[in-house]
Design goal:
about 290 residues; alpha/beta; Rossmann fold; Alpha-Beta Plaits; 2 domains; five-stranded parallel sheet; 10 helices
Length: about 290
Amino acid sequence: MKNSYAIYYYSGTGNTKLIAEMLAESFMSNDIEINLVDIEDVLVGRAELEVAYNVIGIGHPVISFRAPKVVRKFIKLMPASAGKKIFLFKTAGDPSKINNAASIQLIEHLTEKGYHVFYDSLIAMPSNFFISYRPSLIKQLLNRAEQRVAEIAQDIINMKSKQLVVKPWLKALTQKIHFYEEKYGAPTFGKGFQISEACNLCGLCVEKCPAQNITVESGQLDFEDRCEMCMRCLYNCPQRAISNRYKFVVLKDGYSINEIKRIRHDDQISGDYVTSKTRGYFKHFGKYLGID
């Protein structure tokens, strides 16, 4: 009988979904049956939460140094287990160790339910916050992501255990930052959305918001204080009618996973932005990218 794996993922603007799809392809190439499920579909009843697999993977983006509420809600729905094996993967716009702690809360909750989280990993992807990465850096990160996915898939198949190193002080620091961001930062950002006359009330943002933070009131969009800063409404609006008063957080030219995919397969774009001579902010990417 074939081994069967499930990958449950949550993705705000597409990065984590892309990695989940790449992992699924890698597993299938090793003759493993895969069920790829969007966590949001489970939460709204469009998909079943099944745990009768040999191994279960859970993927999420890092938002304010932790897993989003959507993923934590999903974990609460999972039934108790007697040692079912779980692997985690997370995506972030920076490979820094400060993001290693993002899954700690999930690991604790899953362990309490009886699951065995034997593998935790971080994959750096193009940023959709603050800094817009150049195509050559995007290509470089995607090339490395392909390598990391292949490595992770083989580790999972071989049941190799791996846990990211998280120092106590780093766990405490990121936990404190996340607490204040989730309590004050995200709600404030959510109330900062602005709508231009280009809005035609198509309802896409209302339908796709994972936090149900957007409604239509008296013929206008209304944003509440439940925002989780996934950035989906900002970047996916077909009319580009949504902006935010906190402009420094938002990429000026937006973020499109389709453009990311195009860059991935564009042979004319070199993936050599970070080199051994790189200085400044991106210097610390070198170790993750395998550059001395």
